[in-house]
Amino acid sequence: MVHPALRVGVVGAGRVGAVLAARLRAAGHHVVAAAGDSDATLERIETLLPGVPNAKPSAVARECELLLLTVPDDMLGNVVSTLVGAGAIREGQYVVHTSGRHGLAVLEPAAAVGARVAAVHPAMTFTGTAVDLERLAGCVFGLTADAGERAFAESLVHDLGGRPMWVPEEMRTLYHAGLAHGANHLVTLVTEAMEVLAAAGADDPAGTLRPLLTAALDNALAHGDAALTGPIVRGDAGTVEAHLADLRDNAPQSLASYVALARATLGRAVTDGRLLPIRALKINELLDAAVADAPAHQWAQEQAHQAAQQVRG
Questions:
Q1: Which end of the chain has fewer beta carbons closer than 10 Å to its terminal beta carbon, N or C?
Q2: DSSP string, 198-228
């Protein structure tokens, strides 16, 4: 544990903040206050941090020695500036954010008044429940800190049950893009695959996919491109053509992502020499024709229109 035990406050006690605060509490720190407005956040505070008062962000900051800022990326700069402007952040106080995208620059207003700042991002997806506490064991945390705070940042990660990985300030966004591409887009991919299987009549799409996806993920993590299998790597243009036709007719919402990922797979298969360029050309022509297909474009346009209406509403 970071010694001595610290008084911890969390601003933005959502899925990430409430879990990290609960883990620090279990490690011996004192969580003194948490800030959050939504019903879901209040429920998380009550469930994961029983007895911890809900307070305004400025009050939370004034009460603690370690301030965790676990707010959305686009809000972080404004939250830091507002707390500094209110005089709620002070010299010697630890101010740590959990954004993957941001490094130390966003904390500059806090550093300017003498706060000790660090970026500590868990490379993990959170449910905001006690399940996450176990998942933190061995989780990698992407850290960025000045030399004087490196030991503290590593000790904090140790208390959270994780493993530190140092990320240069200028590489924070790229680091986060890799995580988002792998995890967030994976959720979209798997959900679409389940929808396609359901359209094909599968009564348990998740159960059908689970052993296949588990094996594919393990193989990809262990072997990279060598783990690629399937019709594109084999050059089976007829199978790809049939896929595209059936997706167009029965699951048009998945056609665009199938084409995009097929094209990326095609390029990798050619680069590593597993697919002859002439076969790749034929498949690429099929993919070009598919993206010009009206039903898929119509579906995409309808989705974009609905999303825009929701934002306006």
A1: C
A2: HHTT-S-HHHHHHHHHHHHHHHHHHHGGGG-
Exposed e or buried b for every residue in 220-248, given b needs 16+ CB within 10 A? eeeeeeeebeebbbebebeebbebbeebb
CA distances from 142 to 98, 133, 150 (A): 9, 18, 12
C-alpha closest to that of 102 among 135, 128, 126, 79:
79
Q: What is the pLDDT along the chain (313 residues), one digit of tens a residue?
A: 666 899 999 999 999 999 999 999 999 999 999 999 899 999 999 999 999 999 999 999 999 999 999 999 999 999 999 999 999 999 999 999 999 999 999 999 999 999 999 999 999 999 999 999 999 999 999 999 999 999 999 999 999 999 999 999 999 999 999 999 999 999 999 999 999 999 999 999 999 999 999 999 999 999 999 999 999 999 999 999 999 999 999 999 999 999 999 999 999 999 989 999 999 999 999 999 998 864 545 555 555 455 555 545 4
Residue 304 CB neighbours (<10 A): 10
How many CB atoms within 10 Å of residue 100?
A: 21
